Each structure stands twice: as structure tokens, then as C-alpha cells.
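User: Please fill in residues for this 65-position structure.
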């Protein structure tokens, strides 16, 4: 099967969203938020850095705190 025939996961999710009810979308959103937890890409909090204050991680840029 060629690449052009395959949908990306985001395209599949977008298609599914158009077919879902508002209640199903709300449940899905709850699952996604729960799965992500309190993670914020690029921001980390570590005890040994800045007294555990959130700082930019190596993925972002280094802050001097």
C-alpha cells in the first residue's frame, strides 16, 4: 500500500471527530487531558534546579533562573 493511501494518525483523528457526538468528544477530551497530566513540553521542575521552580528544559532554551 502506498504512502498516499495511508492517513496519518492526526488525519484519522480528525475524521473520527467529525463523526462523534458532543458527548463522545467531551469524553475523549477528558481522556486526553488525563493522559497528559500536568506535563508541559519544554518545562521541567527538578529539586536540584532553581529550588524546584519550573524552568525551560533542554528542549527549549536554558534559562539562567
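Assistant: Residues filled in for all 65 positions:
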Amino acid at each position: 500500500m502506498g504512502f498516499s493511501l495511508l492517513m496519518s494518525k492526526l488525519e484519522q483523528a480528525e475524521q473520527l471527530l467529525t463523526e462523534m457526538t458532543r458527548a463522545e468528544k467531551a469524553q475523549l477530551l477528558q481522556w486526553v487531558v488525563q493522559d497528559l497530566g500536568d506535563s508541559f513540553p519544554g518545562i521541567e521542575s527538578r529539586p536540584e534546579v532553581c529550588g524546584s521552580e519550573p524552568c525551560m528544559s533542554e528542549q527549549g532554551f536554558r534559562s539562567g533562573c
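For context: Residues 28-65 form one domain.
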